Amino acid sequence: MIKACVIGWPISHSRSPLIHGYWLKQNGIDGSYVRQPVEPSELDAFIANLASAGLAGCNVTIPHKEAVFDLVTRADESTERLGAVNTVYLREGKLLGTNTDGEGFLNNLRSAAPRLALANGRAVVLGAGGASLAVVNTLLEQGASEVAVANRTREKAEQLRRRFGKRVMAIDWARAGDHLGECSLLANTTSLGMKGQPELAIDLSRLPGTAIVTDIVYTPLRTKLLSDAAARGNLVVEGLGMLLHQAVRGFALWFGVTPQVTGELHDLVARDIDPDFKP
User: What's the CATH number where 15 sits?
Assistant: First the structure.
């Protein structure tokens, strides 16, 4: 049996076992994927003993992504730039770490908007935390001409500007709405709008009708930001798809099969989040 897990502290909220369990069953694979709570003080030992514990690898979530980066060999330049790892796997006895958040974000966008062209476009990203790093990096890799980053603490947005260079611009949080005029993509990477958190307040009046609006928050499935954008006619992309798409490569690395993100899987996880969900 091939075994993998997701680690975090806490970890009880993770829906990754539901996703990977669906794929294991769908592909007839003799495998398991479980939640594994790992305290920060136990992290080094857990990663070091991954192979001896019989694990093919693990996903990494809050608060361990940056710490695991220093405990594994980085598998690619993109992960090196991010300084954070969300997927660990074994190859020839070596522990490798990669980050699939960016491709999860991008493939979610592409599934909802197949004709989306990010090259030479302008994006506004709300937030400057770990998720923002992956999103900004991906937008730049896709050829965005400018990515404006707004964060409640402006210095964190300035840090992204220094990390990624002149195509990233730091803007004041309170004036984010003023920068939407020529925007082709608006992405929220903060926790604002999440169940139990304050709502995200932003003036969308300057946002072009052709702009796409996405939110990495998926509890609730459709945030107020997305509802407001949809009401004014913008195409919106919900955050649940990012969770599903970021899981694809890890499953392939551990279990040897590249799984599909299907409507059935989406609805399964959506009902787990919201029992009243209807497709």
Answer: 3.40.50.10860
Catalytic residue of the set 25, 65, 195, 224: 65
* 89 shares a domain with 17: yes
CATH classification of the domain holding 191: 3.40.50.720
Q: Are residues 94 and 133 in the same domain?
A: no
Q: Look up the domain containing 26 and give its range.
A: 2-100+247-273
Tell whether 278 is covered by a domain: no
Same domain, 93 and 108: no
**For the segment 127-176, what is each residue's pLDDT rounded down to a tens digit?**
998 899 999 999 999 999 999 999 999 999 999 999 999 999 999 999 99
> Mean of the per-residue pLDDT values for the chain?
96
Q: Is 65 a catalytic residue?
A: yes
Residue 258 falls inside a structural domain: yes
Question: 101-112 and 248-255 are packed helices; what angle lies between their axes, rounded to 10 degrees?
Answer: 120
Query: Which pLDDT does position 185 carry in this prediction?
Result: 97
Q: Indicate the number of domains in the chain.
A: 2
Q: What is the pLDDT of residues 198-207, one digit of tens each?
A: 999 999 999 9
223 shares a domain with 115:
yes
Q: What pLDDT, on the 0 to 100 scale, is given for residue 116?
A: 86
What pLDDT does 144 receive?
97
